[in-house]
From TrEMBL:
<comment type="similarity">
    <text>Belongs to the ExbD/TolR family.</text>
</comment>
<keyword id="KW-0813">Transport</keyword>
<keyword id="KW-1133">Transmembrane helix</keyword>
<dbReference type="InterPro" id="IPR003400">
    <property type="entry name" value="ExbD"/>
</dbReference>
<dbReference type="GO" id="GO:0015031">
    <property type="term" value="P:protein transport"/>
</dbReference>
<dbReference type="Pfam" id="PF02472">
    <property type="entry name" value="ExbD"/>
</dbReference>
<keyword id="KW-0472">Membrane</keyword>
<protein>
    <submittedName>
        <fullName>Biopolymer transport protein ExbD/TolR</fullName>
    </submittedName>
</protein>
<keyword id="KW-1003">Cell membrane</keyword>
<feature type="transmembrane region" description="Helical">
    <location>
        <begin position="20"/>
        <end position="37"/>
    </location>
</feature>
<keyword id="KW-0653">Protein transport</keyword>
<keyword id="KW-0812">Transmembrane</keyword>
<dbReference type="GO" id="GO:0005886">
    <property type="term" value="C:plasma membrane"/>
</dbReference>
<dbReference type="GO" id="GO:0022857">
    <property type="term" value="F:transmembrane transporter activity"/>
</dbReference>
Amino acid sequence: MRIRGERGAEKNQLNMTSMIDVVFLLLIFFVMTFKIVEMEGDFSVRMPLASDAAAVTDPTDLPLKLRMTADANGNLSSMLLNDSSLGNDPAAFDRLRASIVDIVGTTAPIEGDEGPEIEIDADYSLRYENVIRAFTAVSGYKDGNQIVKLIEKVKFAKPRM
């Protein structure tokens, strides 16, 4: 005897074709959008060569230090370049430029060489015009129609109060 309401047990199967298509589309998307980047941490560090203690060091290897002090009115009272006095008169900035030319020279730096560096250490109360004149003296000058660059890397020390 057969009962009308019963049917044979049907299997429910999942169609995997569309799932595999989606996986391949995602794979293609990530392969196409992958960007190869340079290795991180690849620094070009120039280490000094081992040498004797009596060897002469190049003054442009270390940052040059320009110390500018002010009097009570904010005027320039003294200017020192690597502990050598340049004075405090208006011609002191010309002497500063001449000293930088003697140390650095007027030739362009070699390809890949960053060139010399100077650190300006000025009193907090020093008038701004003196700092700008010193910055102008160390960065370069105009010779006729040609601009001669001296030091391009200038940094400032923390202000002294």
